[in-house]
Design brief:
The protein is 20% helix and 17% strand. The chain contains 3 helices and 4 strands.
């Protein structure tokens, strides 16, 4: 939770962020500009959290092509926004 000042006064809001890179071939078909950096092993988590920056920054890369599994495809089916 993060407490911050907003136009409506002090509010509590969940906030998060994520790091993106150029997409791999799988993601590029869906989103040509970026994909999130994904850490996939306990060793990568540890490097990201504890290693010197020169070592950790090497993890800022797209996953190799074929590392993700596409589980759905088709037309976007977002619900219509409320009027």
């Amino acid at each position: 939770m993060n407490v911050r000042k907003a136009k409506e006064g002090e509010v509590t809001a969940d906030v998060f962020g994520f790091l993106t890179r150029d997409p791999n071939a799988d993601v590029k078909r869906v989103h040509p500009k970026a994909m999130p950096v994904i850490l996939t092993t306990p060793e990568e988590y540890d490097v990201w959290m504890r290693a010197p920056w020169d070592e950790a920054k090497a993890l800022q890369r797209p996953l190799p092509d074929g590392a993700l599994k596409i589980v759905a495809a088709g037309e976007k089916e977002d619900p219509a926004p409320a009027a």
